């Protein structure tokens, strides 16, 4: 065995040279790996004893992709292009031996091998689109030449990891080796290549064509999914180039579009989110060896929309759930909704009927709170009323076993106050799920003043187990997400009275990248949530709309008018009501520009995020961004409100807030932290 460098070895198995990479944890294409590959292939090609070359990786995976921590820095060592040229132009057959995942740059390395051998458990993919990028090392030109334009479109715009058996069927892999015997299989395949004088197949020399309609249809079918993102469209353009241009010309298109993306704001935002999603799990002050409380059973109080959705998260991972209601009718309805949700999933082919029954078998219902006596975790998911919640926690304090975690799903109430209803405040925590709780990815884990480290650590670990992304936040009205949402809603309502129509505000926020604006969202949820027909006095625009039975999409009208397919259009009735209210309050309505709408809805959110950081209610600016991306539909390509503030420039945010403060009052007063960062020319990202 000869060591090429610290991460690469070269050995001979008879007449087969074996280049082995070992760069934990994922053999990413750092400069050490690139150098090792370059020098390893150079040496193997020069060795007269070697007739063919196998590339294999140690550890859990093949080359998993680029080392994105090197993005934006000065290049060191051999370039990936030089490595690929050395491999592709090798006069000796090169076989890539794939296990684990060959992703991004890893697959692009495998694509310049003459042949590819994989174990059945391996997966291949080009997931750069998820970082706002496209494959920048020839992947956009080589992949279509093997699998065809249509499969390349699917793989590259979804970033999907394709199982080895599918790769074999589409020609991306040439042979499957026995699981656990990849090296033997790859070496045997290399000998077969030599014995049968199989050609040195260069993917770049293949041709691929596609009807232009294929691309038009693909764009149309995915227009909603790709809205606002540059990377999917740029990936499509590269595949078009592969189908219409010689290989080297297609590479020029790929390089040009890659550079536009890698130096652009969208990819910077998506790479930032990639790291933020990993950082959010790191909790300063809580030791790695903090005791984790075993959670083998979960109790949930409330079988409504939230309680049922929360229950499904635990049932999905095999944790038994007891769900409590006060009336049999409500309990039966809740259990029925859970079953229906699972059956609908089964109809879509995502679950078998056996799995539906298996999950339902883990669920039991009861009308007795005392049945939660043995639960390791109890989650209260009833309506937002402090007195009622404290009453429930007082009862739980007497019922729950010692060591049980007592959690509330409140979205805004003071958890410190709720904890006072118990003799064990250290066991009380907030687990704020987002609706629908079985779908939405975000979980705000809210630590109260006396919540123990074990309860916090257990809650974070449990969140990961049930497939959530959790952000640890502190107690304050609305916590992080809803507290910032209030700022946006406040200004949306204010601007309606000043002259902007609901559809103007919704359009600006939709164009910014949100799935929908605040008024369309209200119509979807139902304007009558929290509204009482008997006590309504027509004191607000919402009251008037509900009194006219304009309660949202479900009644065919709300802020908008809806046709039979629930397509929205601006409503003259709503506009009339708004103008009537404005006249009553002496407001002089005016034209409000799109720029003002955006600034007044978004900049106060950034300012509130800064206040949250000042108060220590969020650990990091990036945690706030994770909350907004995963809980409120903030467009990932804008990186979250705090990252967006950085891209706009904090000095500009402060200047515009002060402008509105001078006209409209101290609602817009910049926070001390925001002013300090702006004055120092710093960003939220610079905070340590």
Automatic annotation (TrEMBL):
Pfam families: 3HCDH (PF00725), 3HCDH_N (PF02737), ECH_1 (PF00378)
Pathway assignment: Lipid metabolism; fatty acid beta-oxidation
Uppermost EC category: oxidoreductase
Catalytic activity: a (3S)-3-hydroxyacyl-CoA + NAD(+) = a 3-oxoacyl-CoA + NADH + H(+)
Keywords noted in UniProt: Fatty acid metabolism, Isomerase, Lipid degradation, Lipid metabolism, Lyase, Multifunctional enzyme, NAD, Oxidoreductase, Peroxisome
InterPro entries, per database record: 3-OHacyl-CoA_DH_NAD-bd (IPR006176), 3HC_DH_C (IPR006108), 6-PGluconate_DH-like_C_sf (IPR008927), ClpP/crotonase-like_dom_sf (IPR029045), Enoyl-CoA_hyd/isom_CS (IPR018376), Enoyl-CoA_hydra/iso (IPR001753), NAD(P)-bd_dom_sf (IPR036291)
Alphabetical list of Gene3D superfamilies matching this protein: 1.10.1040.50, 2-enoyl-CoA Hydratase, Chain A, domain 1, NAD(P)-binding Rossmann-like Domain
Subcellular location: Peroxisome
MF terms (GO), sorted A to Z: (3S)-3-hydroxyacyl-CoA dehydrogenase (NAD+) activity
Keyword Oxidoreductase: yes
Every 3-hydroxyacyl-CoA dehydrogenase NAD binding domain range: 297-473
Domain 3-hydroxyacyl-CoA dehydrogenase C-terminal: 478-562, 597-682
Ranges in coiled-coil conformation: none
EC numbers, comma separated: 1.1.1.35
Entry's family note: Belongs to the enoyl-CoA hydratase/isomerase family. In the N-terminal section; belongs to the enoyl-CoA hydratase/isomerase family.
Assembly information from the UniProt record: Monomer.
Name of the protein in question: 3-hydroxyacyl-CoA dehydrogenase
Source species: Caulobacter ginsengisoli
